[in-house]
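Dear all,

This email documents one entry for the complex benchmark we are building for the journal club exercise. For each entry we list the sequence lines for every component of the assembly. Then comes the predicted three-dimensional structure of the complex as a token string, followed by one or two observations. Please use this as the template for your own entries, and keep the labels exactly as they appear.
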Amino acid sequence: MCRLFALSSRDPVSPMRAIEALNVMKEGHDGSGVGLFLHDLGGPFGEMKDAPILSGIFTDDGLKRLDAFMDERGFVTKSTLVLDPKTKVPAGTPVRGTYMARAYEVPADLKGKDQAERELTYMTLRVALRLMGEGKEDIRVFSFWPDTIMVKEVGDPLTVAEYLGLDRPELFCRRILAQGRQNTNYAINLYACHPFFLQGVCTMTNGENTAFIPIKEYLLSRGFPGYMGYQSDSEVFAHIMHFTLKRLGLGIEYYKHVITPLSNAEMEGHPDRELLARIKQTCRKLIIDGPNCVIGCLPEGTMFMVQDRKKLRPGVVGGKDGMFAFSSEICGLDAAIPDRDEHADFQPMHLDTAIVRPECQEVTICNQLQSLPRPH
Amino acid sequence: MQSAPILTPSTLSVNDLPWQVDWDIHTCTLCGRCTSVCPVSAIELGVFRKRTVEATLALQKKPTNNYSIYYGIRQRTDPAYRCIGCAMCNMVCPNNAITPRLRPEATTLKFHNNRGGQARTRGGRRNDSGSLLDQIKFIRISMLTDPALDAGRHEFELRTLLGRVQPPEEGLHALEEHAWVPAVREIYPLMIGSMSFGALSPNMWEGLIMGVTYLNEELNMPVRMCTGEGGCPPRLLRSRFLKYVVLQIASGYFGWDEIIKALPDMKEDPCAIEIKYGQGAKPGDGGLLMWYKVNKLIAAIRGVPQGVSLPSPPTHQTQYSIEESVAKMIQSMSMAWGFRVPVYPKISGTTSSTAVLNNLIRNPYAAGLAIDGEDGGTGAAYNVSMNHMGHPIATNLRDCYEDLCTAGKQNEIPLIAGGGIGKNGNLAANAAALIMLGASAVQSGKYMMQAAAGCLGSEHDRCNVCNIGVCPKGITSQDPRLYRRLDPEKVAERLVDVFLSFDTELRKIVAPLGRSTSLPIGMSDALGISDYHAAQRLKIKYVV
């Protein structure tokens, strides 16, 4: 079972804070990989909020191909951050090339288009680059999105983080999702490493998604080019969130109703019974069967944690004004925010969605039995 | 010396018959129960004359003949009266003095059961005991589900949807706009397959519907039962139990008259309407209720004279093509119940199933597609139809499901699979395999008869006389002397047992796969088979 740690802070913090939290939960993961999602950046990238940032790993050939590809589409490099390893390559971590995050100046014609079109273009380019690199493995792209950097690598989280020197101001940010990977049923593949990202929606999961194949087939059949990959059974959680948010126009409060709907008996007497029954019926293919704990971040910076229907995975939320964290284990929380009020720690149960808005003031608990905000 | 009996090409000896009756003179009490219970009169009381030659030593006197008479049981060798192996004789024998014995090597009868130029018709299903469904294993055991799901303790919601499910965007929009939404029923994934009121005896029907009602009302299991074509008893149509019934109406509108008359008095809508275009066991033949079973009641319900054979009426003359017919009937049936009842066609497994399905995808009123594979049962069919026609269900269903996946409509048009489920007794395993291959629900008829009413039929041509109304257990007979053998209360009890045990077994299958809150439709990663080509064809894992 993987170990997860997510942090939402009012002021930018070092990603090492999350990595250290993963390190104290070391018993729970085998150190077979680490994934990082950094959002709302504080360093130089924070000053170019609208510029899409491409993050990934590139060989020299790959870099050349990338530049040619982006040039052709009118994207001009604005700023580049190269993570140049300071130490020897850790055992078990392959030498892949340059770990890079590069912000781009968007071509003029794209600038004039509306946000939805820009978002679609960013996603399409990322998918195209990923497919381009798959054969030769010279381009590995994890995200192409404004104010977002993603890092993934095979190896022990702390060792990899030290190797890549992640404790640098350019990577300081307000939202962090971090995963320490426990290799389970699928082969180790960088793209199988959480978190998973699609158009600003990012989630990571611990557990095994037993309903993976039918959900994957369903998402693939939606005809949306971003629903692809699926090297991991957990990738569908990010895409379901994306589907809920972008295709159905439903907020975070609805996500749990999509993946773990109420039983018919629980639905009786619910103020939104009709709507919930409709969601349960039409989104039946997206029901997960667990056991899973999903932690995620939405495009505007809201973070959340949900559990499977039976609450079979650990998960805790806690913090203090200005900084909250979501963790697989309390020891992770202790390591990251030791000076919080421990009595206010909350472990979401099978009906709860724990939400921390970007202002980082409090943990909001949304219970499935409560009435829902009207869909927008 | 007596002259030799007449021997014709069709004269058979007992040895030529697949079923032979062993009778023990020493334990028989000559009570006569066996001969009176034999549904096909294969045995009769016999008077035997025995000659004993008595010769004295050294022939001091001339040898004499002593003639004695004894009584016993004689097996008839006329193909029309051959023993069917039902073993009713044994069931009633106080001393176990008589029992039928199968001689699989006796094949002569096969060449003589078409006398009078009539090809053989029989009830039952294909005489092939092999089942691909039985070869499928569930291989994806969730070793990572820690703690593992417990089939006995965790909550389970093994329900399925019957009816056209709108895509999420459309469904939510319809709610917002207060628009019409297709009727969708939440039902139990195992349905009782279509067996018509003409095919089953009144007692069997009563037993089934009682059991179904108990399951629904006392045990909260929304089990549904399908009628065959040819109408429904008027009392049931007007009762509140109609909601547990899927009414079947065929392309010839047989029995529709009775239904339409009852429409204004219906207290409840039926669960769904199944339009029958084909049946797995006799594709192209449709129903075939032989004259033996058309008694006064059946004649009245169907509006036909008594004692005439009733093959399914031809497709109604207003329907020119299958595409048009399907669309038209779905539309008119939906309209009859104010678009409140799901309407779906049932076809026999065929290479063109996907074509039918593709038509349904574009029909917003189509509520599903039932496919009946070649192993489906029947009350009467020509031997050749049953054994040599039709498409196996597993591949047919898989093709259709994959087709739906391509169209992005999986689960939106539920696929209901039938034909050979539980053929060898593995009801839950076969049903689960079909669900994971893409079925939303499964239908089983013969298993219900075998388990709930003690039907004696087997895949070795045992019994299989459902068509001529002499069912030894009174399940498929319209003769009161036979069907009063069947106690409806006991049928209901057994039916409830069957569903409860099925439910337990289904949980025992899905829990280790880590599934509990939604039916694992299309969970093909859980399936494996040791036949390489079957694995390739079904796109499941090849395991040895």
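Observations: The longest strand of chain A covers residues 3-13. Chain A has a mean pLDDT of 93.
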